[in-house]
Amino acid sequence: MNIIYNQIRELSLKYENETANFLAKMIQTPSFSMKEKNMILVIKNEMEKIGFDKIRIDDLGSIIGTIGNGPRLIAFDAHIDTVYPGNLDNWDFPPHEGRIEDGKVWGRGASDQLGGMASMVYSAKIIKELDLNKEFTILFTGTVMEEDCDGIAWEHMILEDNIRPELVVSTEPTSLNIYRGHRGRMEMTIEVKGISCHGSAPERGVNAIHKMAKIVNEVEKLNDRLKHDDFLGKGTITTSLFESGSPSQCAVADYAKIQLDRRLTWGETKESAVAELEECCKLAGVEDAKVTVLQYDAVAYTGKEYSVEKYFPTWKLEEDSNWLKSASTSYIKTLENEPKIDKWTFSTNCVFIMGKHPEMKCLGMGPGDEDQAHAPNEMTRVSDLSAAAAFYAGFVAELNNN
Fold first, then answer.
1. 58 an active-site residue?
2. Which residue in 18, 46, 146, 218 is the catalytic one?
3. pTM over 0.90
4. Segments of the chain assigned to CATH 3.30.70.360
5. Distance between CA 136 and CA 131 in Å, rounded?
């Protein structure tokens, strides 16, 4: 059996330069949320070159490559949009140059998360070449709009196209570790109203900013008493935006709103998080405050309009999961090393896969490092690309032999 895993590793090294060049080509194709069309065409061309059995682009614009026609369905996922470069003065080279140098591929998206796309596409080439798959229909999804709204592309695939794999392997950066969960998150606002009057006599009105200040103070205290999970860590909340309004600069504010970033640990839900904020408002003595969970509305590059609530549930794969055991076994056989089992700090598409649909399991393993995400001078190691491709192919081989 080890012969197969040796062959997988040998092929991953054989195709290492092609994988790196594919990543460089993607970096050279700017692909921001709702502007991913050209990237999708680059990926489609690579899938055609490799010989995927089926390739299609869904209504939201995600690309879905398929190999195999087995009775069971699994998927590998990478989002193919990136954040903008930001301040170019912080970069030592053009962000979309796609430079390959010093054993690394450099540029925006190298780790987050085009490297995962490159590795999984070339893992499909290995799987086909070694005929590793009999049991599964395997989807390789390049998903859109994740940076703007993580999970939206998968919510669309699940609800609109009824795509429901048993397992989805996220190829977000993990430094080649195996991840089995992360905290969820929510985006919420609190709004309060006041009564304006001339600023020279503020006692005649009710200042909405002063009302909101009391609420913000209670929110800060709430952060200290949120739940903790031994694996995922502590829930958190922070005020991220503040706005107010008044008739003039010489008037008492009659409106104030804050936006909140809420990170949810295990056991925390949308309902519990909203109730906590409503309690904060009561403790602040503000009875008329309005707590709202935000809605995300956008138009994809295809012209498709889609909307989801900005509640991204917490998820974690069980420690004794057979999927996790198979992943660990194949990791050892393929990469000849013990995997570290860990979690992401940030959020991924898995929130709308396992988070909202717990019967569909998720785990993660990807090239690149989490701390490279959204950073200037982003890079991923070329050796990570071939190692991840080998792991994906080895994982399929292991699942087919179970």
1. no
2. 146
3. yes
4. 185-298
5. 12
Cα–Cα dist 316/318, whole Å: 6
| Contact between 390 and 8 (Cβ < 8 Å) | yes
CATH of 185-298, one of 1.10.287.1260, 1.10.10.10, 3.10.350.10, 3.30.70.360: 3.30.70.360
3's tokens: 């012969």
Question: Can you give the pLDDT of all 402 residues of the chain as single tens digits?
Answer: 589 999 999 999 999 999 999 999 999 999 999 999 999 999 999 999 999 999 999 999 999 999 999 999 999 999 999 999 999 999 999 999 999 999 999 999 999 999 999 999 999 999 999 999 999 999 999 999 999 999 999 999 999 999 999 999 999 999 999 999 999 999 999 999 999 999 999 999 999 999 999 999 999 999 999 999 999 999 999 999 999 999 999 999 999 999 999 999 999 999 999 999 999 999 999 999 999 999 999 999 999 999 999 999 999 999 999 999 999 999 999 999 999 999 999 999 999 999 999 999 999 999 999 999 999 999 999 999 999 999 999 999 999 998
Active-site pick, 16, 18, 81, 187: 81
Cα-based distances in Å from 235 to 147, 203, 281, 322, 356: 22, 39, 19, 28, 18
- 146 catalytic residue (yes or no): yes
